[in-house]
Write a structure and sequence with these properties.
alpha/beta; Isoleucyl-tRNA Synthetase, Domain 1; five-stranded parallel beta sheet; three-stranded antiparallel beta sheet; 12% strand; flat
Length: 597
Amino acid sequence: MSIQKNHYFKGSFLYQFRLCYNSGVGKRTEREIYNITARNELGRLMLKHKLAELLTRAATEAQKSGKLPPITLPEAIMERPQKPEHGDYASSLPLKLARVTGSNPLAIASDIAGFIARTAEIERVVVAPPGFINFTLSADWLTGQVNSILEAGESYGSIEVGHDKRVQIEFVSVNPTGPLHVGHGRGAILGSTLSNAFTAAGYQVEKEYYINDAGNQIDAFRRSLYARYQQRLGNEAEMPEDGYFGQYMIDLAGEIADQKGDEFLGLPEAEAIDKLGQVGLEKMIGQIKADLEMMGVTFDVWFSERSLHKNGQYDDVMAFLKQGGHISEKEGATWFISTALGEDKDNVVIRSDGSPTYFATDIAYHYDKFLKRKFDTVINIWGADHMGHVSRMKAVVGALGIDPEQLKVIISQMVTLRRGGEIVRISKRSGDIVTLRELVDEVGTDVCRFFFLSRSADSQMDFDLELAKKQSADNPVYYVQYAHARIASILSLAQEKGIDYGDGDTSLLTTEPELTLIRKMLLLPELMETIVTTLEPHHLTYYAQDLAAVFHSFYKQCRVVSENEALTRARLKLVEAAKTVLSRTLHLMGMTAPERM
């Protein structure tokens, strides 16, 4: 909440402050009442937001005192300084104000700093050139957070920014005309991890797979399967020119022939293609589900494209757009008038032969998402070949009367599979593509998830199979999971020795390695907010590696179980808290947290 000028909201901090002050509560000064009320309200906020609120209030007080002009205050944003000696948080608010007022930013910083209420979290506030306000956290407060982490347990890192808003995340959505390959795995893990993050942030999340079970590609799949089925039963049949020639089609036809025999040969060709094709599609979808589940990826809804036509969404949205003046007939086809909404060109939705385009069914699908199922936000994770589709879909959403910003699209770039310095292009098993199942079989689920998540979605990535299988610190997956296993072994040793550290005094954790570890653990809630704001779950992999590194450093410098019983109990508490945070981070990425390696 940013309060500007003299606008007070009933129930807000400044409203309560004025109420207490004007009624003369006890003999407390204005500053004391300010501090008490600040502690009560700020206790509900994430730390960086608490500090931002304190800063905003201090600037407001500086305005009321006449030290700052009565202008609209810019947002107070707290950032992490690159150098630890600059504190835990820093704000450039004085620099922003200096640009507007023309005043000296250092003088502005000093004026604001004088009104910052001191709370339990803050050890000191420092004004630094050219106009920063730096905050250093109190060591006493930091050590007390160890108990807070232990109390939160596996829910540590969860935040309440979603307020139960409904978010749909649609990902993978590969045509069921073939097995998943390595490239599909990246989108699967992005969507799965992003779903975990949004759930942890307090949103109602629905994960969806859109099954493209209609259109030209499905028709080609059915005809290809019918040809392979006939060939398997000894009949001559020619594969269609636009058919699917992979080995998997021969295997699929053979599987159906073994189960169904010549059941489809006695039917008229059109009926045989349709019924055999449906059996084949169900088997392909089943295989896709199984491959995804092997990687820990599941969906709440498997949405059929055909249902859009069967249940009327397609007809409804075309009528809706036509009524709104967004549809026109020209050149024998039906067009969506994208140019009226800022696009470079109009787009065909119904071809001259009467068949709908891919774009048309996607319009109906998003009509269903927003106006039928009423999701607050829709997130689509698409492959790189869909980049040109983004702007026109946002235009459609706007035409539907929805804020285009409610549609978020993540483009997942290509994956190059390497074995050391050599690019792996084809599968040893199928001879055409490297399937996702083959990759998981070779390196394991945890490695797949971490590696696919380790780069931002908009950057191309190399997946090094040799590195993925290394059991050394060179492999980031091994490095992070080994840290968790080491922590588990320390706690196991304490248990064997019968050490009860439940009453450990965390105020004894005063050394720099201990405080650095606590500081790193406290970043997870902020990281979750960053992920749901930026849609960048890859930050989890970097955080996991940083946390593991800080723990390893702490372990080298601080003997956990020692002759000092009080310090031993305190450090065991810290170690258990580190285990809690590292385990939660791994679980958010959909990975296991091994107790031993």
